[in-house]
Write a structure and sequence with these properties.
Layout lengths: L1 H10 L3 H23 L6 H15 L10 H30 L1
Helix pairs in contact: 1-2, 2-3, 2-4, 3-4
């Protein structure tokens, strides 16, 4: 029930939806990001923020018939963390080689 309300508010671009999303899902999003981002702890908070922005921007692609909201959020978190890992690990490896 609360997920439906969050989705409805975000689709209508109401800040209350984001507040509810952060209150309810910040812990699990952080956990998923932390698991997949690995050694790049410095980028964890930035990645979590990106997950919230992606949720806000892509809420229209959520389909409750295909998946539940929690799993959808976790999938976004996982793939954002993997993207961050690819992006920033390549930079770290390049810096190590040049030294």
């Amino acid at each position: 029930m609360e997920d439906e309300l969050i989705i409805k508010y975000i689709k209508r671009r109401k800040e209350k939806g984001m507040e509810m999303l952060i209150d309810n899902y910040r812990g699990i999003i952080t956990s998923v990001v932390r698991k997949h981002i690995g050694v790049l702890i410095n980028y964890e908070e930035e990645c979590v923020s990106d997950v919230f922005l992606s949720t806000w921007g892509n809420i229209k692609s959520f389909d409750k018939n295909k998946n539940n909201f929690k799993n959808w959020i976790c999938a976004i978190s996982k793939y954002k963390a993997i993207d961050y890992k690819r992006k920033y690990l390549s930079k770290i490896e390049t810096l190590d080689i040049s030294e």
